[in-house]
Design a protein that fits this description.
This protein has 178 residues and is α+β, with helices and mostly antiparallel strands. The protein has 2 domains: 102 residues, Peroxidase, domain 1; 71 residues. Helices cover 63% and strands 14% of the residues. The protein has 8 helices and 4 strands, in the order H-H-H-H-H-H-E-H-E-E-E-H. Strands 2-1-3-4 form a 4-stranded mixed beta sheet. Helix 1 packs across helix 6.
Amino acid sequence: MASVAATYARAFADVVFDEHLDAGRSVSGLRRIVALMAESAELRRVWDNPAVPADQKRRLLDAIVQREGIDKPVRNLIAVLIDHHRLHFLERIVEQLEKELDARLGFAEAQISSARQLGDAERRTLEAQIEKTTGKKVRATYGLDASLLGGAVVRVGSTIYDGSVKGQLERIKEAISS
């Protein structure tokens, strides 16, 4: 079912770029609909119920869109998902959309683990090195891992850059044993 989410995400990403929409605002509007559905079992029941006429579902959607200040292209995507009984894919579509938009905008997600809390200057330096290495703008998330002993481990997609003391010790061990 990932292909369904990916298909809708790519199509909506095309709309975002073709119509020069604010990508962040579009994703935010979709996230708001996801949150409203998570908060309201009644809303989910109405939109999932095949006995409720489609025009009634869209009127409810229009009321929510107006109240929340959600853009028309986001409304249209939700309406298509309602009409095609695919609204249960919405959360996965939003996740895929974020990845698609990041790829098109040249962003890379980096998860950085270090043995200690890094200061702002260290973070900026590390992010600049990652940007230089990947050729992409970086959105970094940081975590602590005391087992690293020192240095950092960076994961960008499926690629891992290990600059930790623990990693260096393991490489020395392998070199000595071979």
